[in-house]
Structure prediction request, 396 residues.
Amino acid sequence: MSAITPPSAVRQVLTALQARGHLAYLVGGCVRDMLLGVTPHDWDICTSALPEEVLTIFPHAEPTGLKHGTVTVWEHKRAVEVTTFRTEGSYSDHRHPDAVCFVADLRTDLSRRDFTMNAIALPPDGLIADPFGGVDDIRNRLIRCVGEPERRFEEDALRMFRAIRFAAKLNFTIEAETLAAIYKLAPLSAALAVERVRDELEKLLLSSHPELLGTLISAGLLDRYLRRRPEGEAPFSRIALLPRKALPRWCAAAVLLKEAGCIASVQDFLAALRLDNRTIRCSADAAALLEASVPKSAVEWKRQLRDYGVETVRCSAKLRDALRGGRSERALAAVLKSGECFSMKHLAVSGDDLLALGLRGRTLGDMLNFLLDYVISFPGNNTREILLNLAKGTEE
Ligand code: ATP
Ligand code: MG
Prediction:
């Protein structure tokens, strides 16, 4: 076992459940991560206690998912999810079980979990429970379904996305039978809620192996959002050259898909996946800037910054460096560092100053634009005096 130990709040929840005669284990992602020597980002507990019992044991518990047996216990400001051992009924929509049933034993609970690496339980003291060989699979860095892969993906098509997303995040290989089932059953994913697909895709893009987007696509999991699959190998590995932030990585994925002829428009693709408006707008603009010629001078950079804003121009510069090579980001950083004016905000005169000179409406707006243009070309002249004189002189 790794040197990582659960926080005391989590241990307290486990021992409180045990003290009342219930079985209680750490389970799922936290056990997998501990075995990998990675500090878990959340801690899940499974227990033989029924949700109502969990609610009575812990005064600061909230019934967050009672239907599925989940209660969130707050200990020392930490949220710990406690879920009653359960099994799941049939899955008529390939995503949600029609009913869940609470059960008394751990093995049944572990058998409903997606992958062997996620179906290991660890009691506060005593032996690790690993009925499906998850520890060996973690050792061999393999993602393998618990039970028969085709049946597990028929039950819940999202598991196919999860398999590839975990492979990208953990740098694991998908076991052959599990992978074959993904290729076979990918069409079932057409029924999944867009938001679930988007969230899985984002986790994959933010992982250290975003190039597995290629696997997702060649399996057919994104067919619903694409005109066609790429003909050759699309250079998705370049996405890894971008910072691990949603905006540049979504934008890069969309640009690469467009260049491979898989989508007609960056904007429409991201909108179909229900990305937020800011990501859609910035990505569409950054993609358009990528098509335009590279700014060759500080003045050209400042014009872009004026027209598109810092976030979009920065995104397009990062994108250009990662997808095409070059040093755009560095050139842009130098312009931003210079502190030279490229927006109305930093102009030495304001609309009020021009009002005081008697300018109104459209004339006032045109004058502000003219002054900004002037200052972009002559940054040393961004002073109130020079600009007011210029405004007066030009008006006369
Ligand atoms: P992460 O690090 O992404 O949180 P995780 O394994 O904790 O990984 P969660 O989505 O938090 O993933 O789910 C917790 C546990 O619940 C999983 O480890 C797995 O045992 C089980 N689980 C989650 N989603 C599914 C699913 N769709 N089908 C079967 N079991 C699932
Ligand atoms: Mg988790």
Summary: The chain is about 50% helix and 10% strand. The radius of gyration is 28 Å. Strands lie at 24-27, 44-47, 61-65, 70-75, 78-84, 86-88, 100-102, 121-122, 142-143, 173-174.
